[in-house]
Specification:
Chain A: Its EC number is 2.1.2.10. The complex is a heterodimer. By secondary structure, chain A is of the alpha+beta class. Chain A has 8 helices and 20 strands. Classes of the chains: A alpha+beta, B alpha+beta.
Chain lengths: ~375, ~130
């Protein structure tokens, strides 16, 4: 059993200890699964607002006169298409099309980008970026240990954040951001209108030393709006209801972004050639053999990761990548990697839940839309 | 919670309350429910099924994960808590009362000596909590 104190710590670690928040080993990081309860925290985000510590996420700066073309060579989306103060969801692929990571790219200027990989992939992505740096006029800096991240999510997120900043939040549209903002008297906060919950909300990037102060200030002004501190448990159920892929589940080095449900972030025809382009182009033109699909159980039970999936005639045709009982919809939902012939909406599939085969239907995602 | 001499516990955090005529009622402990979090689905044992001590008998699922529940004693399942089908949260709310899982007609009374009594279980949980607190 891992000792919590030996794990990597976010800037809220001392706060968690002082407040006796139970911590678990989450990919090597000491983080809470819940504060009061997953269902209660989930409902807070859907109805009011929730605050998440996601400081374990990585932050890598890519700067220099050739930063745009360099990133466009590594990323599957079209970096050249975004404007300053705009963010873009991306995949970074290997030559064989396998997904190295999914991440968000923030364009501060033509020569300055912030890239935010998943925590567990940060070192891998940083190494990859360095390995693929040629003669280009680009510098790469891993700032993950110096930057923290809080996510304020839910229909009341804007009302709450508005109490703490003079920035006009209406000016920050979805997938846009404002750098060097002041929030709760803390300077140099990057306010991004992004999130991972299917709700309106903001992600706030700032100096690690200021994270606990911002956390407490947001909670103090948000409580009267129904804001609750939220753990990783509800983060997972919220993203699953929103049909969002999670690295290590729907995406991996063995799964392409097209197979993994994020094909919208793959721009085959962009002007710069990119790593993995040939294979992804082939997948687009020839078709894929399997893909991520949403499903809903018809019979009782809950589908869990790695449970097998069968066709009507008993053939194994895939596996569950994520599954839960949806707190908002009160239905058993999940995402699965299924063989392409069984991926049509409305197809009946069977999930192997222990000794039983439980019927399910392939349905459209997101399961929940605000 | 129930304070009776007739309650015993397993290392896997099942409780078993000895009733009359070699019948025992079972469920999961408060500690188990705290570890699991919000319980959203319970697959109760099959009525009349035979079960052996420490054999998988039921599944309790939280939002996050599915946990196997093991039979505390060998015997035949004589009753299951059907309320749990529509109200799995009873296990969180009253794990020793309305949240019971099943009743077993047990055959081997010697097995009871392998279980923990209340004070032994309390000490066991205290130890686990101290380990967790590290």
């Amino acid at each position: 059993m891992s000792v919590i104190a030996d794990l990597k710590k976010t800037p809220l670690y001392e706060y968690y200890r002082e407040n006796q928040v139970k911590l678990v080993d989450f990919g090597g990081w000491a983080l809470p699964i819940q504060f009061t309860g997953i269902i209660e925290e989930h409902a807070a985000v859907r109805n009011d607002a929730g605050l998440f510590d996601v400081s374990h996420m990585g932050e890598i700066w890519v700067e220099g006169s050739e930063a745009t073309s360099y990133l466009n060579r590594l990323m599957t989306n079209n970096i050249a298409a975004i404007k300053e103060n705009q963010a873009q969801y991306n995949a970074i692929c290997k030559e064989n099309g396998g997904t190295l990571d999914d991440l968000i790219v923030f364009k501060l200027s033509q020569e300055s980008y912030l890239v935010t990989p998943n925590a567990a992939n940060t070192d891998k992505v940083f190494d990859w970026m360095n390995q693929h740096l040629g003669e280009e006029e680009v510098t790469i800096k891993n700032d993950s240990a110096e930057m923290g991240l809080l996510a304020l999510q839910g229909p009341k997120a804007a009302v709450i954040l508005n109490k703490l900043t003079s920035e006009d939040l209406d000016d920050i549209k979805p997938y846009h951001f404002k750098a060097h903002a002041t929030v709760a008297d803390i300077e140099n906060v990057l306010i991004s209108r992004t999130g991972y919950t299917g709700e309106d909300g903001f992600e706030l990037y700032l100096d690690v030393d200021k994270v606990e102060e911002l956390w407490e200030k947001i909670l103090s002004v948000g409580t009267e709006e129904g804001l609750k501190p939220c753990g990783l448990g509800s983060r997972d159920t919220l993203r699953l209801e929103a049909g969002l892929s999670l690295y290590g589940h729907e995406l991996s080095e063995d799964i392409s972004p097209i197979e993994g449900g994020i094909g919208f972030a793959v721009k085959i025809k962009k002007s710069d050639a990119f790593i993995g382009q040939q294979e992804l182009k082939r997948q687009r033109s020839e078709g894929i053999e399997r893909c991520i699909r949403g499903f809903e159980l018809v019979d009782k039970g809950i589908a869990r990761e790695d449970y097998p999936i069968y066709s009507e005639d008993g053939k194994e045709i895939g596996y569950v990548t994520s599954g839960t009982k949806s707190p908002t919809l009160n239905k058993s939902i999940g995402l699965a990697m299924v063989d392409y012939p069984y991926s049509q909406l409305g197809t009946t599939i069977y999930v192997g839940v222990r000794k039983k085969k439980v019927a399910a239907n392939i349905i459209a995602t997101p399961f929940y839309k605000r | 919670m129930t304070t009776t001499k007739n309650i015993y516990f397993t290392k896997n955090h099942e409780w078993v309350l000895l009733l009359e005529d070699n019948t025992a009622r079972m469920g999961i402990t408060q500690y188990a429910t705290e570890q699991l979090g919000d319980i959203v689905f319970v697959e109760v044992p099959e009525l009349s099924s035979e079960t052996a001590m420490e054999e998988e008998i039921a599944t309790v699922e939280s939002v996050k994960s599915a946990s196997e529940i093991y039979a505390p004693l060998s015997g035949t399942v004589t009753s299951v808590n059907e309320e749990l089908e529509d109200s799995p949260e009873l296990v969180n709310e009253a794990p020793y009362e309305a949240g019971w899982l099943a009743e077993i007609h047990y055959t081997d009374t010697d097995e009871i000596s392998q279980l923990m009594n209340q004070s032994a279980y309390d000490a066991y949980v205290k130890e686990l909590k101290e380990e967790e607190g590290q």
